[in-house]
Design a protein that fits this description.
The complex is a heterodimer of chains A (about 300) and B (about 290).
Chain A (H helix, E strand, L loop, with lengths): L1 H29 L2 H5 L6 H10 L6 H13 L13 H6 L2 H28 L4 H15 L2 H15 L12 H30 L2 H8 L4 H38 L5 H11 L2 H29 L1 H4 L2
Chain B lengths: L6 H9 L7 H23 L33 H37 L1 H16 L2 H12 L3 H9 L3 H16 L2 H8 L4 H37 L11 H9 L7 H32 L1
Helix pairs in contact in B: 2-3, 2-11, 3-4, 3-6, 3-7, 3-9, 3-10, 3-11, 4-7, 5-6, 7-9, 8-9, 9-10, 9-11, 10-11
The chains are: A mainly alpha (about 300), B mainly alpha (about 290).
């Protein structure tokens, strides 16, 4: 198992380094930041000064080395847009996004897994139909639209919840609900189909023939086997949270990484974009690594190697 | 199962799923037909030029006057006309994007299956990397660098989730290679290209069509999402996502500006998804 985890660690490192490199090269060769950030009427001297200030006049290789060594020290440069340190801009947004996504993730597991189990065990019951309908809707309603519907119902119409901002805990309810409903529907659907698959296996029939009570079969025989594919899906869901944050955070003016990334993209603030892509990649790599390790721990076929 | 495919047989089996279908799927098909009609004829059936402003009739409520059935927006533009043109734009982008995606994905999957070895490893490694990061983040990164232009946007949208086609095609081709007909064709000296296109493609088309129905709504959602963020379609052009974004500021006083384009997005993606699910079940049943 040690070798397996080591190989995954190495792969994670390769992905991280190549992302840094690709993102850096693409960002630097594709456009002149000086012309993007300064007005069209800027004089040539101003452009030169700008390039010198940001080190844009050196060779790309030099820029890369400087960038990597700075990045390793937590220095991602300064934002083109407001002149503050990128590290500060990004890190003040991290807790906000974590607060939102982690609570949404926990809530969606707490809703999705029991719903999926119920749906699989009681086929054709109202719970089953609800799960399937919810999953289909989850695939067809854009998350930003659901967010707007929530804003309309709870903030504009009923006036019981705030529509934007992040100052109190009640500001969290609508964005978390938007996130969680989407993910819960997906999780429930996958839990249902996995469990139905497992319940059709011969060893379940054998356990039934042995006269083991139904709840015991589900709890001790079916669920541990369904857990392994479930881990992969939960990993995907966790990875998808960032993609969701990009669309959901702006709807609620939630000052996290998602809305920060959109703002940086719109204004062409490449220093911030670059740092955030790096952060997102690191996040994804960590999640994938966690999934792989959990997989190895849970799956005897890999554990025994 | 693996007999030579004559065109008549494949045509009949292609239409088979549409006979004796449930009402819900019939409704989905009806809605999809309406959307396709709008996609073709939007500009001719629109009651007004979609950018036409009527400042005296701003924020007309829907279902009240026959002149503006679905109301007007903050500049007095007719919502029906805007909705028709926006649906057309979104549909065009989704169609072109889906086709690009299908072509890129299928070709790369085919290449991976045909050559194997390091080509296979490189393509599959790339597709794993693409699958591991949400595409909207990649898309925003690209838009940050190059700015938003219509052509780039269509290609970008077309690049979403290509890896699913690649993986699917690769798997299908690898298993089709094992079947008698491909082997037989190879032995009698049919060139590989012809085996793939003439013999294998009709046999693996079912799952690829199903994948298309999964991918198409996702591309609509991606387009709407990016346009909603202001990074996709740019005014004066319009799209469903852009209309939602536009109406968002007036949510408190004019719900219809968000509700109608939102409803079109949901109904369209829902119809295509349901049709896709249904087709998958039917194809699976036929394969069983």
């Amino acid at each position: 198992m040690g070798a397996f985890i080591l190989s995954r660690l190495f792969r994670a490192l390769v992905v991280l380094v190549s992302t840094v490199t690709v993102v850096f090269i693409v960002l630097r060769i594709s456009g002149d930041a000086a012309q993007q950030m300064l007005p069209d009427t800027a004089s040539p001297e101003a452009l030169t000064a700008f390039r010198a200030k940001w080190g844009l006049d050196r060779s790309i290789f030099e820029q890369y080395l400087i960038y990597v060594s700075n990045a390793l020290q937590g220095d991602f440069g300064t934002s083109y847009a407001d002149g503050r340190e990128v590290f500060v801009i990004v890190s003040e947004r991290i807790p906000k996004t974590l607060l939102l996504t982690v609570s949404a993730f926990i809530l969606s597991i707490a809703l999705g897994i029991p719903a999926g189990i119920l749906a699989a065990v009681r086929r054709e019951s109202p719970v089953d139909k609800g799960v399937m309908a919810g999953a289909v809707l989850g695939y067809s309603v854009p998350n930003f639209l659901l967010g707007l519907v929530f804003v309309f119902v709870f903030a504009v119409w009923l006036r019981i919840l705030p529509s934007s901002g992040s100052s109190t805990w009640s500001h969290m309810i609508l964005p978390v609900a938007t996130f969680a409903l989407f993910n819960a529907a997906g999780i429930a659907r996958f839990m249902r189909s996995t469990l139905i698959d497992v319940l059709g296996q011969p060893y379940i029939s054998a356990a039934r023939a042995d006269g083991i009570p139904n709840w015991e079969i589900i709890l001790f025989h079916a669920l541990p086997n369904a857990a392994i594919p479930m881990i992969t899906t939960l990993g995907f869901t966790a990875g998808g949270l960032l993609g969701g944050a990009v669309l959901i955070e702006p709807v609620f003016a939630w000052p996290g990484l998602g809305s920060g990334f959109v703002a940086a993209t719109s204004s062409g603030d490449l220093a911030v974009v670059q740092a955030m892509i790096l952060l997102f990649t690191a996040f994804m790599v960590t999640i994938n690594l966690t999934v792989d390790v959990l997989y190895a721990v849970l799956n005897p076929k890999i554990r025994m190697q | 199962m693996a007999t030579a495919v004559t065109s008549r047989l494949s045509k009949r089996s292609f239409w088979a799923p549409f006979q004796r279908m449930p009402t819900s799927i019939g409704l989905c098909c009806a809605w999809i037909s309406v959307v396709i009609f709008v996609g073709i004829a939007a500009r001719w059936v629109a009651p007004y030029e979609y950018l036409h402003q009527d400042p005296l009739a701003r924020f007309s409520k829907p279902f009240i006057s026959a002149a503006h059935m679905l109301g007007t927006d903050y500049l007095g533009r007719d919502v029906v006309s805007n909705l028709l043109v926006a649906t057309q734009t979104t549909l065009m982008i989704a169609i072109i994007g889906s086709l690009i995606c299908a072509i890129i994905g299928t070709s790369l999957g085919l290449l991976a299956a045909h050559f194997g070895g390091w080509v296979d490893n490189a393509i599959m490694g790339f597709s794993d990397a693409m699958a591991s990061i949400p595409f909207i983040i990649v898309a925003l990164g690209v838009l940050a660098i190059f700015g938003s232009s219509p052509l780039l946007f269509v290609f970008l949208v077309g690049f979403a989730n290509w890896e699913r086609y690649a993986r699917l095609t690769r798997g299908l081709v690898l298993s089709a290679k094992e079947e008698g007909y491909a082997e037989a064709a190879r032995i009698v000296g049919v060139p590989p290209m012809r085996i793939y296109l003439r013999h294998m493609l009709p046999n693996i088309a079912g799952p690829l069509i199903v994948q298309f129905t999964v991918n198409f709504p996702e591309i609509i959602l991606l387009e709407s999402g990016l346009s909603f963020l202001g990074l996709g379609i740019q005014p004066p052009a319009t799209s469903l996502g852009l209309m939602v974004a536009d109406g968002r500021s007036y949510l408190a006083i004019a719900w219809w500006l968000v509700a109608f384009p939102g409803a079109v997005i949901v109904l369209t993606t829902l119809s295509i998804s349901l049709l896709g699910d249904y087709l998958r079940d039917r194809f699976d049943a036929r394969l069983r």
